[in-house]
Amino acid sequence: SIPDYVIQIAYQHHENINGNGYPMGLFKAKIFPMASLIAVANLFCELALPTPYQGGISAREALAEMYKYHQDNLSPEYLMALGALIVK
Known about the structure:
mainly alpha, 4 helices
């Protein structure tokens, strides 16, 4: 009873647009667009939000780290959209 698009998002949100992700090593054209969006949001949350194991960093620091270390893995459209929201 889970919608197909939810399954695609859950299954593909660790895929990278350059084909280095998992579980299937898909390239950008084969990744469900909402999974690419969730990948950007997921990484941002991992960096910015505190966990029991580490404190979070500021939104600007998280964005800078995403551009520096993860730009080749993430959808440029969604990464730029996140950046536009943060640097307003």
